[in-house]
Specification:
Blueprint: E1 16-21, E2 27-33, H1 37-43, E3 54-60, E4 63-70, E5 77-82, H2 93-102, E6 107-112, H3 136-151, E7 158-163, H4 165-176, E8 181-187, H5 198-208, H6 210-223, H7 228-237, H8 245-255, H9 258-274, H10 281-286, E9 291-296, H11 304-313, E10 318-322, H12 334-352
Parallel strand pairs: 2-10, 5-6, 5-7, 7-8, 8-9, 9-10
Antiparallel strand pairs: 1-2, 3-4, 4-6
Length: 355
């Protein structure tokens, strides 16, 4: 375990807390996150040379798997990041690096990709699994196999950090490893279908139609034929105006491929099938002191109605609302990655040295 006083950084400022009464008239502590990133930057002592995450390939259950990681020689804890769909690890480069910095290099941080066929840019036209489509259940089983293979022999505490559908996967992994997982954090969690979201209705129809999903995958693949400089320009001037270089590169090198987008749509279809039911609140109640969620103000994947349901039914889960405007795609910007990394590390430090 990592004693709090070993961190070279100043303590992260507390979050503003307010009490809300649930149906049993019990006072519940709900953390509403205020701006802390600027204060943290001023208070902590940064290393002169920033650590950089690196990509590594490994074989898990016969599937070629890409990792984005920063390793500590003698880690006191391990943080495993499980991204959301499309599951390209490169999207989380700044996030992983920011967490590693804030943890003082005392933790190994690994970002696992969800799309098993996603590749680094140097392999951008490869198709490792030869067109196979992977479901949400396949992804859950794959993460379990990864932990058994890569982390099975270590007694270092494991912290799961899931984003979007990665939050759901993290909870399922937690269910399989109740003793090994020290804490599970869900960021902008996608835990159940939002039937009031018109965007989800449209995405569900696209993902559920093989013809439409194939056609859109083909269109994006045609854009991938363009020179990489042209692809970057298109992304920068359209969806990625405020994005980090890593996020733009992730789109250009991974998502503009037919087989990757087919997997994105197929996984989305199976997500909508599996998440048609309500989340397993009973499991959350049994582990509520080891679970935390961060919700956004206007996020149809993790709506505030889900926040309120968890607050009502699972009183001791740590719940926070992000009000800085980083939203669901926080990992696409450096500011969002830095802020959310600070929030995650504050949760981890509270578990390491509870007040």
């Amino acid at each position: 375990m990592l004693p709090l006083n070993r961190s070279p950084f100043a303590p992260i400022p507390r979050f503003l807390c307010k009490s809300i009464n649930n149906k049993n008239n019990k006072s519940v502590r709900v953390r509403v996150s205020k701006s802390t990133s600027g204060a943290m930057a001023a208070e902590r002592s940064r290393s002169s040379e920033q650590s950089r995450a690196s990509l590594r390939l490994c074989n898990v259950s016969s599937f070629t798997t890409e990792l984005l990681e920063l390793r500590s020689e003698n880690p006191l804890l391990h943080v495993l990041v499980i991204p959301g769909n499309p599951g390209v690890a490169l999207f989380y480069k700044e996030f992983v690096e920011a967490m590693y910095e804030r943890l003082g290099g005392c933790a190994s941080v690994t970002g696992r990709e969800i799309g098993l066929e996603s590749l680094a840019s140097i392999y951008r036209h490869k198709n490792w699994e030869k067109g196979r489509l992977f479901s949400l259940q396949d992804q859950i089983d794959h993460k379990v196999s990864f932990i058994n293979q890569e982390l099975g022999d270590t007694e270092v505490p494991l912290y799961l950090v899931g984003h979007s559908i990665g939050s759901y996967i993290s909870l399922e992994v937690f269910r399989r490893f109740p003793e090994k997982v020290k804490y599970c954090i869900g960021l902008y969690p996608f835990l159940s279908l939002n039937k009031k979201s018109s965007k989800q209705i449209i995405i569900g129809k696209i993902a559920g139609s093989e013809i439409i999903s194939k056609l859109l995958s083909l269109v994006l693949a045609m854009l991938g034929i363009l020179p990489i400089s042209a692809s970057r320009f298109l992304v920068r001037t359209s969806i990625g105006k405020s994005w980090s270089t890593s996020a733009v590169e992730a789109v250009c090198s991974y998502l503009l491929q037919y087989h990757v987008m087919r997997n994105v749509f197929h996984m989305a279809m199976t997500e909508f099938q599996m998440l048609a039911e309500a989340p397993d609140l009973m499991f959350m109640r049994g582990k509520q002191e080891k679970i935390a969620f961060l919700f956004g103000i206007d996020d149809h994947w993790g709506p505030l109605s889900m926040f309120e349901e968890i607050l009502k039914e699972v009183s001791d889960v740590s719940l926070s609302i992000e009000k800085e405007g980083h939203a669901h795609g926080y990992c696409c910007t450096k500011a969002g990655s830095e802020w959310v990394a600070g929030h995650v590390v504050s949760l981890i430090e509270q578990q390491i040295s509870p007040q």
